[in-house]
Amino acid sequence: MISLEDAREYVLAGCRVSTPSVVALRAALGLVLAEEVVATESIPPFANTAVDGFAVRSADVAAAPVTLRVIGTLAAGAAFAHPVGAGEALRIMTGAPMPNGADAAVMVELTELSADGTTVHVSRSVEPGASVRNAGEDVRPGQLVFSPGVVLSAGHLGVLASLGRLSVLVHPRPRVGVISTGDELIEGDQPLLPGQIRDSNRHTLLAMLDQSGCVGVDLGLVRDNEADITAAIERAVGQCDALVTSGGVSMGAFDYVKVVLDRIGDMRWMQVAIKPAKPLAFGTVQGVPVFGLPGNPVSSMVSYELFARPALRKMMGFAPRAWMRAPVRAVADEAFVRRLDGKVHFNRVIATLEGDGRYHVRSAGGQGSHHLTAMANASALAVLPDGVGVAVGGNVDLLLL
């Protein structure tokens, strides 16, 4: 067996950061920026009011309460041709440009408009600049707004749109093919014949790819037949940036995935010192990374979490600190008993944040590599180093899922 760290280091070294490409803003959420964004204009582009109310000269309301003459109404999206003079006020709506002559806005709550709309009573004074958003207050021309490496959130996309951008240069979402192999697998609700089971791994892994921000490509079920597996893998690497298979990576007589990948790829077959998910294959076929995950459903999910997800995040341009989930220290609300076996165990647990400000964990159910329901109910993996486990009340590290 090799250590988790050595296996992950080998996998990460075999994956390169993707070449940047231009995508529409709508498709860029969650992706990593690959360019410097420098402002070419001001945000806001002009001084505007932050409130509904009246644009005034602050000197005219310094001795409030006062009554001013209303010279018009200005809505957002329009402009007012005449300056605000002494003793005058302009009724104005949020976002409308400040008129010449005015240097402040009084919110409507501090005013009372006359019945005929010709005058306004202002009950309180305001300072110069009150409720005014100045041009360039957020962003100035020539300013470096965002640097490469930023993970684009909804707010980032809003700023880009404010700068007139319709697209942006990012590290794209990798297209990742998913194949399930095995003569025992069937799809859907057709009746099970003796020895058959319904495929869950493909659907699970495609969903995990979606959660990781990738584009999952469903390549279907492939029988335990060398020719079929060869054709499926060659088709996959021709259209995908990476490939994930489940099953056929152990040492069984019918593990044809291993036979095919050894023949057409540059693969390494590993026994990793972890439980579950000890068997792992990784390498390349025609330069495309291939992750050979174990066939047991929980093992395939844990293996994806520990190896494929970090590697795919590297390909997507994330910083190294974001490739893996950071461990969180928690309190064991029940004992997690294990025995010495040279492996790190990843127990499926339910984690809750309690009143003491710490996460507390309990088992999510059966810990067998076939207990998919417990994995579905788990919100974290408890990391149990080789040893005898953790007693009630002891500290345990979590990977929050």
From TrEMBL:
MoaB/Mog domain location: 177-314
InterPro entries for this protein: MoaB/Mog-like_dom_sf, MoaB/Mog_dom, MoeA-like, MoeA_C_domain_IV, MoeA_C_domain_IV_sf, MoeA_linker/N, MoeA_linker/N_sf
UniProt record, GO biological process: Mo-molybdopterin cofactor biosynthetic process
EC number: 2.10.1.1
GO cellular component, one term: cytosol
Cofactor: Mg(2+)
Reaction(s) this enzyme catalyzes, per UniProt: adenylyl-molybdopterin + molybdate = Mo-molybdopterin + AMP + H(+)
Keywords: Magnesium, Metal-binding, Molybdenum, Molybdenum cofactor biosynthesis, Transferase
GO molecular function, one term: metal ion binding
Enzyme class: transferase
Pathway where this protein functions: Cofactor biosynthesis; molybdopterin biosynthesis
NCBIfam families in alphabetical order: Glp_gephyrin (NF045515), molyb_syn (TIGR00177)
Name of this protein: molybdopterin molybdotransferase
Organism whose genome encodes this protein: freshwater metagenome
